[in-house]
Design goal:
Blueprint lengths: L19 H4 L4 H21 L29 H14 L2 H12 L7 H27 L3 H14 L4 H9 L3 E4 L4 E5 L6 H4 L14 H4 L4 H13 L2 E3 L6 E5 L5 E6 L2 E4 L3 E7 L6 H6 L5 E4 L5 E6 L5 E4 L4 H11 L10 E3 L2
Parallel strand pairs: 2-7, 3-7, 7-11
Antiparallel strand pairs: 1-6, 4-5, 8-9, 9-10
Helix pairs in contact: 3-4, 4-5, 5-6, 5-7, 6-7, 10-12
């Protein structure tokens, strides 16, 4: 949009040819007029930026009739903004669009809220699609292309755990040929005092079956994760190890061992969780959660009854949610955002 300028008096005066002796009072009027014009021009420059109307001037907008208007028609870079948005919407060039929009944001004029909303939406789409594409590229072994996408994301989302995980999973990789460790867990004990209530000094742990003796508490599981992280282990997806081929009837025709590429100095780990279907009777006796639910924020959480029978909803008392939080805080504990496996 072309800015609306404010013209002023041009200040041109012509001398009428009278002699110096005959000028007399003839100089007074032109001089005063010139001084007034100069003051008006200077004030106009200071108020309107050299002839362009500044956003938010207390004057009625010719387009919408409002005073102190910041509507789209007054934004001087609307065409450039819309052109940048078109790069994303029509051509899928999200990164280039965000680069141009970021440059426009650095200019003094603040874009209207409608454009800012479009920018926020564009950032969300770019983040979602780029993360998805980068993870797919890593799973296909195209680490260079994935790293390029992750680097672009880092420019606009510095410090984001997902982006940091992508960078970690796509750079300085080496072929791993060592042992792949596996740890197996059951649902965690949330209330140890309830789990050990049937253990007495006389029977010690004899009253617990083999499965119960394998259970660990929330505290113990967190300590195990910290120890594994400190020792250089990272979570991997079991599907990274083998690729199965199938016959026409859907049966397994063969299994191929894949090359395993991991960040230098890291060791692979698979975590498996069994019986996450929750048996209410045994879960209650063992002091475990009763089920997994979605909390009021739509996030995965565990549901249990405390020692007083009161409902407890938590994101910090089961393997799945604890592991999610740990990987979020330690992006270099997981290869390509791998977590655990749920045993059938």
């Amino acid at each position: 949009m072309n800015s609306r300028g404010y013209g002023g008096y041009n200040g041109k005066h012509t001398y009428n040819g009278r002699s110096a002796a005959g000028r007399g009072k003839g100089w007074v009027v032109p001089a005063l007029a010139f001084l007034i014009v100069a003051v008006i021009v200077l004030a106009g420059f200071l108020l309107f930026g050299g002839g362009e109307r500044a956003l938010g001037d207390p004057e009625k907008c010719e387009a919408c009739g409002e005073t102190s208007c910041v509507c789209l028609l007054h934004y001087p870079y609307e065409e450039e903004w819309q052109a940048a948005l078109a790069l994303a919407k029509e051509e899928g060039l999200y990164y280039q669009a965000l680069v141009e929009l970021t440059a426009l944001m650095a200019l003094p004029e603040t874009p209207p809220s409608a454009l800012l909303a479009e920018l926020d939406e564009l950032r969300e789409v770019y983040y979602r699609e780029c993360v998805k594409s980068a993870r797919q590229l890593i799973s296909e072994g195209d680490f260079s292309a994935a790293h390029g996408l992750a680097t672009g994301l880092e420019e606009f989302f510095p410090g984001d755990p997902q982006v940091e995980n992508l960078l970690f999973s796509s750079s300085d990789l080496v072929r791993y040929t060592g042992v792949i460790e596996h740890i197996f867990f059951h649902p965690l004990i949330v209330y140890p005092e309830r789990a050990w209530a049937k253990v007495t000094p006389s029977n010690n742990q004899n009253s617990l079956d083999t499965k119960e003796q394998e259970l660990v508490t929330v505290y113990e599981f967190k300590k195990i994760l910290e120890n594994l992280y400190a020792r250089g282990y990272i979570l991997i997806d079991v599907n990274m190890i083998y690729t199965a081929t199938f016959d026409e009837d859907g049966g397994v025709a063969g299994i191929k061992r894949n090359d395993l590429w991991l960040p230098r100095g890291k060791k692979p780990l698979i975590i498996t969780v069994d019986d996450l279907s929750y048996n209410r009777s045994t879960a209650t006796v063992n002091g475990q959660n009763l089920k997994l639910i979605l909390d009021t924020d739509g996030e995965l959480a565990s549901y249990s009854l405390d020692m007083d029978g009161k409902e407890v909803i938590s994101r910090d008392s089961e393997i799945v949610t604890i592991l999610d939080s740990f990987v979020l805080a330690h992006p270099d504990f997981s290869f390509n955002n791998s977590k655990g496996c749920l045993a059938p």
